[in-house]
Amino acid sequence: MKQESLQEELKGLSPQLHDLKQQNDGLRVPEGYFDALEDSVLTRLDTMGARRQAIAGRRSGRGIRAWLFRPQVIAALAAVFVVVLSAKWFFAPMPPAVQPVAVQTQPTEEELIEAYILQNISDFEVDQLATLSKDREAEVVAPPVTPQQTPGLEGLSPEAIELLLREMSDEELESIL
Amino acid sequence: MLKFDSLQVSATKKPVSDEQILELLRSDNTFERGFRLLMSQYRERLYWHIRRLVLVHEDADDVLQNTFIKIYRGILQFEGKSKLYTWLYRIATNESITYLQGKARHTSASLDDETVLLTNRLQADEWFDGDEVQVKLQQSIARLPEKQRLVFNLRYFDEMPYEEMAVLLDTSAGALKASFHHAVKKIENSFKETDH
């Protein structure tokens, strides 16, 4: 068939439509529409998961790898991990609650004695106070020893006893005697 | 007005052949680049083809995106038996017709009512600023039977040669020429009726 241009064809067929074709038809598109179209289509393909399928369909091995490294898949896996972790934490048996250490409110015997002495300090002689003080110091510095902790002097040789006595201070000797 | 023959890639872009695009689409590594090139090459041609069938920009955008999604999914099934743009046009045409049929089924309106609805929507479209004559032209086109309307659009607006149209619509060039002439006469009569 001989190629006939539309203009020639229309001129003979309908001069009115021929003239009308030269005018603007009034159909317009938003500015930048075509430039944004490619991304819109690819975004829609992403949303539908169709982009992945097309790639995966061609070579399954590479497709699965590509699919696994897609941001959506990584995000989904991360979300699942967080949910599993939260569930594990939520359903795990609770450790026994730590009991708070009771605050001792009752005064000890020593405190009572101390308070009594301080209250009635004028009733005591200085010697008595010194003895009391010494006793208390001795309690703090040298707590009473049990026979299991220190061997008795009976088991020691006379030389060892002599050496021990030499090393002892006058107060220690006084306290023993 | 957009002409079919002048619809090659604009002067600012380096022209890419269909073979180059198809070559890129065959490899995983270059598939997306190839698809972007395909869209960039054909988006305007396909848009205007769809827009003249559905008229309203919003609908045309929807149909065009669906068309590209179908192309994306099916491009590897393209065997190269016809030209690439013929294959793309066929998908765009099918999508447009399916869209219009779906809309007609939804409204269950008669052809006349449908035409009125379509032109009303066109006039309300912010992306249409045609005068009364253009509205009348679109109204007359909308009244044509589906196949005739398609032939008229492809020839009148896209200036597609009959031989290419024959491949696209799987019919003879002679039948298409006759169909176009009938359509032109109907539109002309429609104008005359309005004038009287």
Written account of the structure:
The complex is a heterodimer of chains A (177) and B (196). With 177 residues, chain A is mostly helical. Chain A is rod-shaped, with a radius of gyration of 51 Å. Helices cover 64% and strands 0% of the residues of chain A. With 196 residues, chain B is mainly α. Chain B has nine helices and no strands. The model of chain B is unreliable at 1-12 (pLDDT under 50). Chain A binds chain B through residues 1, 3, 6, 10, 13-14, 16-17, 20-21, 23-30, 33-34, 37-38, 40-42, 44-45, 48, 50-51, 53-55, 57-59, 62-63, 66, and chain B through 1, 28, 31-32, 36, 39-40, 43-44, 47-48, 51-52, 55, 57, 61, 64-65, 68-69, 72-73, 76, 127-131, 133-134, 137, 155-157, 159, 161-163, 173-174, 177, 181, 184-185, 187-188, 191.
Question: What would a concise description of this structure say?
Answer:
Chain A has 177 residues and is mostly helical. Chain A is 64% helix and 0% strand.
Shape of chain A: rod-shaped
Report the β-strand fraction of chain A as a percent range. Answer: under 5%
Proportion of helical residues of chain A? 55-70%
Radius of gyration of chain B: 18 Å
Biggest sheet of chain B: strands, sense, closure?
Answer: none
| Computed CA radius of gyration of chain A, to the nearest angstrom | 51 Å
Low-confidence segments of chain B: 1-12
Write down the overall mean pLDDT of chain B. 87
Q: SSE order of chain A, as H and E?
A: HHHHHHHHHH
* Total DSSP helices of chain A: 10
This entry's quaternary arrangement is heterodimer
Instruction: Indicate the overall shape of chain B.
Output: globular
First CA to last CA of chain A: what distance?
143 Å
Helix content of chain B: over 70%
Contiguous uncertain segments of 5+ residues of chain A: none
The total of helices of chain B stands at 9
Most extensive interface between two protein chains, with residue counts: A-B, 39 and 47 residues
